[in-house]
Amino acid sequence: MKKLWAILYSSFIVVAYSSFIVVALSLNYFWPPMSLEQLFFRLFLVAAFSLIYPCMNRIFHAIVMYAVMTTAIFLVFIYAPTEKMQGVVQKIFYFHVSSAITMFFAFFVVCVASIMYLWKNSDWWDVVALSAAEIGVIFCTLVLITGPIWARPIWGTWWSWDPTLTLTLVLWLIYVAYLMLRIEVHDPKRARFAAILGIVGFVDVPLIRWSVEKWRTLHPKPVLMQEGGTTGLTPAMLLTFLVCLWAFFLLFFYLLRERASVAQSRHALEVLRHEIDEILIG
């Protein structure tokens, strides 16, 4: 099992670090002239991604997560400048967008783990899919809560049946239905149905992304990555956002490992109980 966790963490390192390199090059952010803030930003990325594999240690992971979360809160409320048009309410952006990206990643893990479960018929992949689905629903709920809080002073309404908002609500309902399929004790038939739902439900994720970029909706256009490879964030805002995003990812992996461990222990207990019942009956 540790080997599988190592593969999962290592894959995340490669994908995430490669993505940040592409973003950095496209924004022309790390090339000279390099200010002290830019140098700190570069060193932070290297240090942060080099920590993800040692974070397989539970205590060390918790310590790093706490430190990054504390730093993120400081950067959001003290370091990051207040946006001129929206004012202080814009600071919800750092939590709202970070929750959304983490939600998308969680449901991506559900999709991949569900495919692997149907292919390998391994209980470990089923546990990963179920655990990621539960965490993904939590982050999706945060998105649906922080979005209206941000929208009220900007749009003048708590909710609008905007395509992006509606698709996000549909995504939440899909994976709540996934969890409802798994309420009962472990049943291979239910697990297979849930795996299919977890795969099909992920189709809604690119639709949400497409609606933000291409459709005319009340939801604002992306500011992190705009057309032409530019960003609508200042260097201080970009640094703050990336630290917040890193904190959310650390939280996701911590919860995923703890929830998977609980699920495996519960499954082992059910198997042991079943064996004891067979012995007593026999």
In short:
The protein is an all-alpha fold and 282 residues long.
Question: What's the SSE blueprint?
Answer:
Blueprint: H1 2-26, H2 36-50, H3 58-79, H4 92-120, H5 123-155, H6 163-181, H7 188-201, H8 204-214, H9 235-281
Strand content: under 5%
Average predicted local confidence, pLDDT: 76
* Shape call: globular
By DSSP, the count of extended strands is: 0
Residue share in helices? over 70%
Tally of individual helices: 9
Features:
mainly alpha, 9 helices, 76% helix, 282 residues
Structure description:
There is one protein chain. The protein has 282 residues and is an all-alpha fold. It has one domain. It is 76% helix and 0% strand. It has nine helices and no strands. The chain starts with a helix and ends with a helix.
